[in-house]
């Protein structure tokens, strides 16, 4: 097969591992910087160009699109879909998962466990918004934040009011969530491929920190999931329409709660913690499922 990887840096661990795994299985791989791609959009023969050449004949495309280039990156991926290339994750599913508020609304509609979440735009709504999520302590998250950036734990009502007022004053979009104290600064990263969790790790925040992101000094260890946690992770990925996803769960007193569904989950932390060949399993999934024009949304959305 001829596989394209949409990535801005071929030396990143995740991109490098996907290249190694695909080439080890005899596939031809090309790494394409989505920002260097440009599109010929027409009714008869849509094309993607790069450095003056037409990119064609790819059997599958693996999107590794960073949050900062979601708009342009998904446009390039959508063009591949229109050309009949099989996408590991579809453009509409990636866009859906990147919109934190929309994704939580979709998960809620499917009855999937979530932290109680509030969203408002007027300062007069702040007192009720805080009460809605159970009062302080509570978590305030910027909708555009990634890797723990823009996530604040407000330990008192006064602190919560101050942060919310500041975000509103900056015209920033944010949501307010209940703080799951019993999680103890830990979450579970469940790596879903197709209809099963193929690897999972527990991420523990460093002392004095409540964000468990590995980029913020958190540690990762192998973890055994309960059947309910596995089922929740798979259902969350399916709700987003993702074939491959990193689903982040919190362990609460009332069952597993979904924090986020990541459409481009990193491979380094999960492969190191579990010692599993996750990249190889992704390539294996593509081998089994890739077919020309096999895109549910046909480039729409």
Structure characterization notes:
Helices cover 32% and strands 27% of the residues. The protein is α+β, with helices and mostly antiparallel strands. The protein folds into 3 domains: 2-89, Rossmann fold; 99-113 and 182-263, D-amino Acid Aminotransferase, Chain A, domain 1; 117-179, Dna Ligase, domain 1 (2-Layer Sandwich). A 5-stranded antiparallel β-sheet has the order 14-13-12-15-16, sandwiched between helices. Strand 6 (60-63), helix 2 and strand 7 (86-87) form a beta-alpha-beta unit. Helix 2 (70-82) runs antiparallel to helix 3. The protein is globular, with a radius of gyration of 20 Å. It starts with a strand and ends in a 12-residue tail after the last helix. The mean pLDDT is 91.
Q: Give the CATH architecture of the largest domain.
A: 2-Layer Sandwich
> In CATH terms, what is the fold-level topology of the largest domain?
D-amino Acid Aminotransferase, Chain A, domain 1
Choose one word for the global shape.
globular
The chain-level mean pLDDT equals 91
Biggest β-sheet description: 5 strands, antiparallel
Residues in helices, as a percent range: 25-40%
The assembly state of the depicted protein chains is single chain
Q: Strand portion, in percent?
A: 25-35%
Instruction: Please write the CATH class name of the largest domain.
Output: Alpha Beta
Number of strands: 16
Q: In sequence order, what are the helices and strands, one letter per element?
A: EHEEEEEHEHHEHEEHEEEEHEEHH
Tell me the domain tally. Answer: 3
Radius of gyration: 20 Å
Q: What structural class is derived from the secondary structure elements?
A: alpha+beta
| End-to-end C-alpha gap | 27 Å
Strand order of the largest sheet: 14-13-12-15-16
């Amino acid at each position: 097969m001829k596989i394209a990887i949409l990535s801005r840096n071929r030396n990143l661990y995740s991109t490098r591992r996907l290249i190694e795994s695909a080439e080890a299985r005899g596939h031809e791989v090309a790494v394409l910087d989505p920002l260097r791609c440009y599109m010929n959009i027409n009714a008869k023969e849509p094309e993607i160009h790069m450095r003056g050449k037409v990119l064609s004949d790819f059997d599958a495309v693996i999107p590794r699109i960073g949050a900062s280039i979601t708009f342009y990156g998904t446009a390039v991926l959508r063009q591949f879909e229109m050309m009949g290339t099989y996408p590991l994750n579809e453009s509409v599913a990636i866009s859906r998962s990147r919109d934190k508020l929309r994704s939580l609304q979709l998960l809620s509609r499917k009855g999937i466990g979530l932290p109680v979440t509030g969203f408002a735009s007027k300062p007069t709504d702040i007192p009720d918004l805080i009460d809605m999520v159970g009062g302080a302590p509570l978590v305030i998250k910027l909708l555009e934040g990634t890797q723990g950036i823009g996530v604040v734990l407000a330990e008192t009502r006064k602190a919560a009011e101050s942060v919310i007022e500041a975000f509103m004053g900056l015209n920033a979009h944010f949501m307010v969530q209940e703080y799951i104290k019993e999680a103890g600064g830990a979450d579970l990263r469940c790596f879903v491929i197709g209809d099963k969790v193929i690897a999972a790790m527990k991420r523990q925040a460093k002392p004095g920190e409540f964000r468990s992101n590995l980029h913020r000094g958190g540690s990762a260890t192998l973890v055994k999931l309960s059947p309910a946690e596995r089922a929740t992770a798979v259902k969350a990925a399916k709700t987003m329409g993702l074939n491959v996803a990193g689903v982040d769960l919190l362990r609460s007193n009332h069952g597993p709660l979904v924090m986020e569904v990541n459409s481009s989950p990193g491979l380094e932390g999960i492969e190191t913690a579990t010692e599993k060949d996750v990249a190889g399993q992704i390539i294996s999934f593509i081998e089994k499922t890739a077919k020309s024009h096999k895109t549910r949304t046909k480039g729409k959305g």
